[in-house]
Amino acid sequence: MRIFFIFSFIVVSILFQGCFSKEVKVEKVNIVYPSFPDEPRIQYLETYRGENNEKVELNTLDIILGESIENKSKNPLIVKPYGVTIDNGKLYAVDTATKMIFVIDEKTKDVSFIGDGLSGPVGIAFDSKGFAYISDTRRKAVMVYNEKGKLLTAIGSRLEFAQPTGIAIDKKLNRLYVADTKGHKIKVFDIETKKMLLEIGKRGHADGEFNFPTNVAIDSRNNNLIVSDTQNFRVQIFDKDGKFIRTFGKVGTRPGEFTRPKGIGVDSEGHIYVTDSAFNNVQVFDDKGTLLLYFGGAGYVKPGTFRLISGLYIDENDKIIIADGFTGRIQTFQYLSEKWKLSNPEKYKELSGLNGKINKEEMRIKKELEKELYNEAENK
C-alpha cells in the first residue's frame, strides 16, 4: 500500500509539473542602483555560492526520500561567509561555519582552499607580497600564509588579543590593522617586524572610544583608518597615527542611522560603504558622513538582496565584494566611478539609458518579468 502511494504521488507530481511548469524568458537586465531614470552609481555583477557555482536542484523523488541539497551536492558550498577580499584575480571568502577559506578564480570560476590550522577564521587581507593574513578568534591571533597557502607565522597571542575579527592592510605604510572586538580597541602591527606599533581607543562612548568594533578599512587617498564601531552604532575615522578625526551615525532605523553596522569599505573616491545586518543593506556616505545612497534589502534569492549581510571589501578598481551570511552567497558589484566611466563609455551609456535603448515602459516590463522569475524561484 505504501509503495503504491509513493508511486502514485510521483506520477501525479510529474503530471502536475508538466501541466503547470513554464519558462519565463527574460532578456538580461542590468541591475543598477539607483534605478533608471536616476543616474546609476552601483552595478550588480554576479553571485558566488561555492565550488564552480554549482546549482543543485532536488527532484520529486529526492523530496520523498528526504534528500537535502547539502547531501546531494558533490562540491562544498559556502555556508556562512564573513570576511571577503580580492587579490591577484582571485576572490577569497572566509566561511566561519566550515572554517574554510574559499579561493575563487574570477575568470575560470575554479575553486581551491587555503587555511590549514584555522580554528575560528573571521577576517582576511593581503599584503603587497601576496601573503594572506587571516584573523582567528579562537587562536586569538592573525595567521599568516604565503602565496602558496603555507602557514608561515602568527601575529599576536592570547595576551594581546581578546577577540581579533575584522582586519585591513595599508600597503603604503606596510601596516596591519586589527579590530579587537572584545578588547574594544584597534591594534596596529608592522608587517615586516610583526610587532605592535600602537593601540587605538578603549571601551567607551566618547570620540575615539569603542564598544565592540568589528571591522576596519583604509582610505587609500590619505591612509585614514575607518572603523565600524558596532555597538556604538557609528563609524569613526582616524588618521594614520591613530588621531581621532570625526564620527558619524547613531542608533535608529532611518536612512543614515545604524542598528547593526558590520562590514566597511572605502572606494577610490573616498565614499564609505557600511553594511547593516539588521537592515540587510549597504549605506554609502561621503567622507564627511553625509548619506549619498543605499541599496539592498531583505531577500534570499534575488540579486542585490541579503539576509544577515556581513563583510565587505572594495578593491583598487572599485569592485565591491559583499558576504551574505545566512544565504551563503558572495555578491559582487561595481562602483561606477568617474575613472570607470571614462574607461567604459558605451557600457555606461547602456546602464544609464543614454543610448536610447531603455525607456520607462521597457523598464516596467522588465521589472515585472524579473519579479515573476524571482517569485517562481523562491517558491521552488
UniProtKB/TrEMBL annotation:
<feature type="repeat" description="NHL">
    <location>
        <begin position="245"/>
        <end position="288"/>
    </location>
</feature>
<dbReference type="Pfam" id="PF17170">
    <property type="entry name" value="DUF5128"/>
</dbReference>
<protein>
    <submittedName>
        <fullName>6-bladed beta-propeller</fullName>
    </submittedName>
</protein>
<keyword id="KW-0677">Repeat</keyword>
<dbReference type="InterPro" id="IPR001258">
    <property type="entry name" value="NHL_repeat"/>
</dbReference>
<keyword id="KW-0732">Signal</keyword>
<feature type="repeat" description="NHL">
    <location>
        <begin position="148"/>
        <end position="192"/>
    </location>
</feature>
<dbReference type="InterPro" id="IPR011042">
    <property type="entry name" value="6-blade_b-propeller_TolB-like"/>
</dbReference>
<feature type="repeat" description="NHL">
    <location>
        <begin position="197"/>
        <end position="241"/>
    </location>
</feature>
<dbReference type="GO" id="GO:0005576">
    <property type="term" value="C:extracellular region"/>
</dbReference>
<keyword id="KW-0325">Glycoprotein</keyword>
